[in-house]
């Protein structure tokens, strides 16, 4: 499998009714018979906490948000 990560931009996203500054990263995964691309938003804190993951599928986009 081949994995590549590309920095796209910095933006504010809403997590738990507050805006948090995050870096938007595009992740592309290629395998022998399939490919998948999705976005991960990492917080700008010291731990670079993943705040949001968005994975597009044919029926819609699946989103995971950090809940604290």
Structure, explained:
With 68 residues, this protein is mainly β. Helices cover 0% and strands 74% of the residues. It is built from no helices and 5 strands. The mean pLDDT is 92. A hairpin with a 4-residue loop joins strand 2 (18-30) and strand 3 (35-43). The protein has a 5-stranded antiparallel beta sheet with strand order 1-2-3-4-5, with no helix packed on it.
Topology overview:
Layout: E1 2-15, E2 18-30, E3 35-43, E4 50-57, E5 60-65
Antiparallel strand pairs: 1-2, 2-3, 3-4, 4-5
Can I get a quick summary?
The protein has 68 residues and is an all-beta fold.
| Overall 3D shape | globular
Q: Tell me the β content.
A: over 45%
Average pLDDT level: 92
Largest beta sheet, briefly? Answer: 5 strands, antiparallel
Q: Percent helix among the residues? A: under 10%
Q: How many E-type strands?
A: 5
Structural class: mainly beta
Uncertain runs: none
Strand order of the largest sheet: 1-2-3-4-5
H-E string: EEEEE
Given the structure, what is the number of helices?
0
Using only CA atoms, what is the Rg? 13 Å
Report the end-to-end length measured between terminal Cα atoms.
Answer: 33 Å
Which key phrases capture this entry?
5 strands; single chain; mainly beta
